[in-house]
Amino acid sequence: MKEKNRIYLSPPHMSGKEGLKIEEAFKSNWIAPLGPLVNEFEQMVANYAGVKKGAALSSGTAAIHLALKLIGVQKGDVVFCSTLTFVASANPILYEQAVPVFIDSERETWNMCPLALEKAFVETKRLGKRPRAVIVVHLYGQSAKMDEIIALCEAYDVPIIEDAAESLGAMYKGRKSGSMGRFGVYSFNGNKIMTTSGGGMLVSDDEAAIERCHFLASQARERAMHYEHQEVGYNYRMSNLLAGVGIAQMDVLDERVQQKRRIFQRYHDALSDVEGIHFMPEYQETKSNRWLTTLTIDRDTQISPVEIIDLLEEEQIEARRVWKPLHRQPLFHDCPFYTAATGIPASELLFETGLCLPSGTSMTEAEQERVIDTLHGALHKKACTSIKAART
Ligand SMILES: *Cc1c(COP(=O)(O)O)cnc(C)c1O
To answer: Cα(349) to centroid of ligand 1, in Å?
Structure first.
């Protein structure tokens, strides 16, 4: 039998023009960090987001780290952060020896719950403290409830860092995801909707801050004829070669959003009437980039996300669970956590019941059918055995 080719969760998808841009960099010998392609890429992404400036960096994590530095977060400062996210959202808080405080999700967007955020603000104030920054994540391409979150952060006068690593190309009420906070963060890691193999960007309307970001990202070298340094710096800049890849990827970004949304739609059409399955909602007046198609499986359904992942794996199909909430990670075991839920926090329920399906834009329709058939098989097989079990 012919070996089935493996279907990955979200592999890189090149436009085909990346090579030309890399060649351009080679021909001009702009291989080293900095160079014309970096500037071009930064302006391209900033224009796309609808903000003034961008700083191309070595990763999204580096962008979050420098956003915290630019805001002035210091040792012992409190930083609020969405709990349902990848660890990279919060690791930079620890780099600065600041204190992460995690905020639960709500069910309509899976993102930061404004009620839990308000609770955290009130309680932190009662303790005589004020957070220095709020990191809001737009999970799997779905924007958080930014109107409510912005209103609260303005009332408490705390700047927002939007972790838009997964939501490049998504829209919130006519605005681009990542353009609404003081800083926006994008990632171009290999699994993201567009990639430079590895990389990230910090964007902002604050031109002086982005200029300082460039300074901090290149070892904080002062203007002088010799090497002069007054403060600690980082080697965080993106290379000119990779910026070339990014420019070519930007050409197909909107097409990728459309493809991701079509992939979601096909899963949705094929599976939405299966009992106990709920797809990640798309919140009113938002447009998700559907980076990953995600769904939940009710807890009283006969099959769990873990069992489904195993069954898909047998068919050479890669699926994953939803992120484990950071407040449940051993790394953050002593960090405060706020929820508005009276029972199980929303983020914990989403973790227990959530499933991410293969969503690569290079996946063919036939491959997606294979995923859907396997899922149907898994859900059906389980339903039959449970009927049998009920009869005997
Ligand atoms: C991928 C990701 C990051 C980190 O981006 P890197 O470029 O891999 O450092 C941060 N936050 C979230 C939510 C992510 O998914």
So the answer is: 22
- Per-10-residue mean pLDDT of the chain, 392 residues long, equals 81 90 81 80 98 98 98 98 98 98 98 98 96 98 98 98 98 98 97 96 98 96 92 95 95 97 97 91 97 96 93 96 98 97 97 97 96 90 55 52
Q: What is the dihedral of CA 211, 214, 220, 224, to 10 degrees?
A: -70
pLDDT of the residue at 22: 84
Q: Is the CB of 166 under 6 A from ligand 1?
A: yes
Q: Which helix (H) or strand (E) holds 338?
A: strand 337-338
187 lines ligand 1 (CB under 6 A): yes
pTM to 2 decimals?
0.95
pLDDT of amino acid 21: 85
Contact between 295 and 278 (Cβ < 8 Å): yes
* Amino acid found at 220: A
Domains of the chain, CATH where assigned: 18-252 (3.40.640.10), 254-391 (3.90.1150.10)
Buried b (16+ CB within 10 A) or exposed e, 155-178: ebebbbbbbbbbbbbbbbeeebbb
Compute the distance from residue 300 Cα to the ligand 1 centre, in Å.
33
Active site residues: 192
CA distance 240 to 379: 48
